[in-house]
Predict the 3D structure of the following.
Amino acid sequence: MKSHYYFIVSKQTGEAIDVMGASSAPGTHLIAYTRKAAAADNQLWELVPSTTPGYYFIKSKQTGEVIDVMGASAAPGTHLIINPQKATGTENQLWALVPSNIAGYYFIKSKQTGEVIDVMGANRPPGTHLIAYPQKTTGADNQLWQFVLVMP
């Protein structure tokens, strides 16, 4: 089966989820960064179904690592990183796509905490870190994401 890769693009900034510095080191932080014109592997993501219905691992094309809540912390504002996919204790690496009231945009919700992927501080500059944060009911553009399929 052929993999499908996506840019995951912020509604607020139009920037994509990016592995900072295109690093392949486990524990590298995730940022919102200007979407590259030519598909760059550090901005491409695959949704890998888990054994828990409705949840996915979000896997980097560049490294094969997945989006992870750093240290499996439940504290709001915890940074998001890439790490190797775990075989057990994976709740901090599992994500559900929750439709918003805006067509085509989703909250990406952590199984571990119920928090969502958030552009920290609703900042707009390229390079702003991504965190897990409680889902907002208003002013949530920095928590809304669109999946843009990259054609082979």
Remarks:
- The mean pLDDT is 95.
- The longest strand covers residues 78-83.
- The chain has one domain: 6-137.
